[in-house]
Amino acid sequence: MLTIDYDRLDVRPGMRVLDLGCGEGRHSFEAYRRGAHVVALDLNARDLATTREWLGAMELAGEAPAGATATAVRGDLLRLPFPDHSFDRIIASEVLEHIPDDTAAMAELTRVLRPGGLAAVTVPRWFPERVCWALSDEYHANEGGHVRIYRAHELAGKLTAAGLTVTGKGYAHALHSPYWWLKCAVGTDRDAAVVRAYHRLLVWDITARPWLTRTLERGLNPVIGKSVVLYLRRDTVTADQNPAEDRLAVDEVPASSRR
Predict the structure, then answer these.
(1) What are the backbone angles phi and psi of residue 8, rounded to the nearest 5°?
(2) What is the pTM of this model?
(3) Could you give the CA distance from residue 42 to residue 62 in angstroms, rounded to a whole number?
(4) What is the dihedral of CA 20, 24, 29, 32, to 10 degrees?
(5) Domain range summary for the chain, segments of one domain joined by +
(6) Structural fold of domain 9-124+147-173+226-252
(7) For the Methyltransferase type domain, which residue ranges apply (predicted)?
């Protein structure tokens, strides 16, 4: 289940792509399939182990083009272990809402993106998220949970202040909003029959991708899409930074899914 439009992000073979807060790697996998040199970064060791396992399985199955590489790296979004201007594309999907100091995280994202590079940032959309918070404290008030709800213009303003230019906006996963509303209404820890039934519908939709639900979701995304996606570009470089030197330094990053 992808939140990012990879064609819109223009991910191409040979590009260096950073998946920030990769979780179990869903966005890293698609970038790898497209022939990129992928670095999947997260602080959660268990999620990284899953990502590393699946990247290795993809390599063995020949699911990525020759020359593509992928690695999973444990790291903190507030102190990224990469030189300036290391990446052509950056993905930060459903991660900033978890970080108390999101301004510092955005500054780090900008720092490691090369001038002219593109990024895609997604967060839960304000209205669907606000309903979830109203229905359930357990949904967000837990260790590692959501610490804020963004309005799209607020997120855009913060990313612009960090040095990025917003080039486009989109919405995704409208069919998932009612699922989370139901789950929050009955209790996030309860195994309610109605929640199980809706979950089966979502799994069927993701695996079968029938035209009816795909068309329905596209129509509903602007109204109740669970996620908002901002597409961004870094245009400038500060006077004390040398893009050519920094691009050479990125070769120090490991580039094999077997590591």
Answers:
(1) -70, -35
(2) 0.89
(3) 25
(4) 50
(5) 9-124+147-173+226-252, 174-225
(6) Rossmann fold (3.40.50)
(7) 18-120
Longest dimension (CA), the chain: 60
pLDDT in tens, 156-170: 999 999 999 999 999
Phi, psi dihedrals of residue 166, rounded to the nearest 5°: -75, 125
Residue located via tokens 């029938």? 210
> Per residue in 34-83, pLDDT tens?
999 999 999 999 999 999 999 999 999 999 999 999 999 999 999 999 99
Alpha carbon distances (Å) from 193 to 180, 182, 203, 207 = 14, 11, 15, 21
Instruction: Tell me how far apart the alpha carbons of residues 138 and 136 are, in angstroms, rounded to a whole number.
Output: 5
Q: Which of 63, 81, 108 is nearest to 252 (CA)?
A: 81
Distance CA 145, CA 236 (A): 34
Amino acid at 108: E
Residue with tokens 């070769």: 251
